[in-house]
Write a structure and sequence with these properties.
This protein is α+β, with helices and mostly antiparallel strands and about 240 residues long. It is about 50% helix and about 15% strand.
């Protein structure tokens, strides 16, 4: 009896008049809880998605939640007044969120690519051998022809030093990040990765097919012959 009484409770939705509140109105707590989470009355991203929806029901829903006469009406009542079920709203919001995520990723990809370009560049870094000082400690008695071999006074004591054999200027060239380089070359179409490894794309600058093939022939190396020749040379050396 109590269930039937609840079923008969009515409320006015503004368009269709009195509707059963248990199925279409404020009593639908699950629908209301879901809409409260995405907060269409305040969430600007949700409102933008509603406004751009090709489904006129969602555009109508957005228009209604902005009208003063719907201000005190539960959002689930408004949604059901637009003939939008909970499942339809969930499906729409999932698609809208996916598109929003893709848009954010596209916007961020420009900055990420700029960072990758910087990471891929070679740069000068302090020499790890001499810590950028251009010299390293040396033992006394080295040949005088040793580059930069000389005595210096350090903290009141005479010590022998010599030029850093690695850099001579305190800096070394450090290659860029290999992973960033590979990704950039793939993005730019200069290399193509496949099951057989990496293919390098060569642009022949508008050359005809015949001349391009001729160029390729001129660059071809017969590796088996080279390998056989090396083995023959090794064999003659052993004899």
């Amino acid at each position: 009896m109590g269930g039937m009484a609840l079923e008969l409770i009515k409320e006015k939705d503004g368009l269709r008049g009195l509707v059963p509140s248990q199925k279409n109105g404020i009593q639908d707590k699950v629908y209301g809880s879901y809409l409260d989470q995405i907060n269409p009355r305040e969430n600007k991203d949700v409102q933008i998605a509603l406004a751009s929806s090709p489904d006129v029901r969602f555009v109508e829903f957005l228009e209604r939640i902005k009208l003063p006469r719907y201000k005190r009406m539960a959002v689930q009542t408004i949604a059901k007044g637009c003939n939008i079920s909970l499942g339809e709203f969930q499906k729409w919001y999932n698609q809208a969120s996916t598109q929003r995520s893709i848009a954010l990723a596209q916007q961020a990809s420009v900055k990420i690519t700029e960072d990758m370009v910087e990471d891929a560049k070679s740069r000068e870094d302090a020499c790890e051998r001499c810590d950028g000082t251009t010299w390293i400690p040396a033992q006394q008695g080295l040949p005088l022809s040793t580059p930069g071999y000389r005595p210096v006074e350090i903290e009141g004591q005479v010590q022998w030093i010599r030029d850093c054999p690695r850099c001579q200027r305190g800096k070394v060239r450090k290659p860029g990040d290999a992973h960033s380089r590979n990704l950039l070359l793939e993005m730019s179409g200069n290399i193509v990765r496949g099951k057989g490894g990496v293919s390098i794309i060569q642009n022949f600058g508008g050359a005809s097919h015949t001349s391009a093939v001729a160029d390729l022939d001129s660059m071809t190396m017969d590796l088996p012959d080279i390998i056989d020749a090396e083995f023959e040379e090794m064999g003659s050396t052993e004899e």
